[in-house]
Design goal:
Elements lengths: L2 H17 L8 E8 L6 H13 L5 E8 L11 H9 L7 E8 L2 E2 L2 E4 L6 E3 L1 H8 L7 E6 L16 E5 L18 H9 L6 H18 L8 E4 L12
Parallel strand pairs: 1-2, 1-3, 3-7, 7-8
Antiparallel strand pairs: 4-5, 5-6, 8-9
Helix pairs in contact: 5-6
């Protein structure tokens, strides 16, 4: 390869990297934080505390909190409320979607304990509920056992990031009233102020979860991460 050809490849590569960057740093975000489990306090704790981090920021276009616990301060995170919140996002130009769900999970999907009997959100239902985000930048985080089932075509799209607390066939840990958050949620909220893009955040979380499980002699949960082209470099909401 001649030098002129080499530099042409380099130039095209740089242009491609710029074009595939899915969202500029001034993107405004529609955020849904949902504690879908009511069996332990850890889920409510995370949603309340992470919401406090986000509230009042110019980068936040809207912020919705849902909780499975019965409390008049907030709407319950049953399927109807979650579906209504997700399908109502519809971000406009320069906006994106951030959805964080934390609770218990099963091989069928994350469990919505606010419903009786408990409803499980299967991947096909999740895919449908996220369609309102269209082609806008979207981050889906599911902190639950077996949550890796959501890394499937239809959910994993070019404009998206998907983070899950475990592989599709494994459990995650930290669901205890003796803890403030689950292991994954603790690692997420600790890593948030240390990083400035989603790829670095994922690497930090993964390292933290592995270390936490190793120290407690827990089996590996193997958190899963998917990034569309250019999405690893997507800036956090306010680096």
């Amino acid at each position: 390869m001649g030098m002129k050809t080499f530099f042409l490849y380099m130039l095209v590569g740089a242009m491609f990297a710029t074009c595939t960057s899915a969202a500029p740093s001034d993107t405004r975000w529609h955020v849904i934080l949902a504690a879908v489990g009511n069996e332990q306090n850890v889920f409510d704790n995370f949603v309340n505390d992470f919401a406090s981090v986000l509230k009042g920021r110019n980068e936040i276009a809207s912020l919705t909190q849902l909780h499975a616990s019965i409390d008049e301060r907030w709407p319950a995170s049953g399927l109807e409320a979650l579906a209504r919140s997700l399908t109502g996002l519809m971000p406009q130009e320069g906006e994106g979607c951030l959805v964080y769900l934390t609770g218990h999970g099963a091989p069928e999907g994350i469990a919505l304990s606010a419903d009786t009997p408990t409803v499980f959100v299967r991947p096909t239902r999740m895919e449908s509920m996220l369609n309102s985000c269209g082609g806008r930048p979207t981050v889906l985080i599911v902190s639950a056992c077996y949550s890796g089932i959501y890394l499937r075509p239809g959910i994993t799209r070019a404009e998206r990031i998907v983070m899950t607390a475990s592989a599709a066939d494994l459990t995650s840990f930290g669901c205890s009233n003796n803890l403030q958050y689950t292991f994954f949620d603790q690692c997420f909220i600790d890593a948030w102020p240390r990083q400035n893009n989603w790829g670095a955040l994922a690497d930090d979380i993964n390292k933290c979860v592995k270390l936490t499980e190793s120290r407690g002699n827990y089996p590996a949960s193997k958190p899963q991460f998917f990034f569309g082209p250019g999405m690893r470099e997507l800036p956090l909401l306010f680096p």
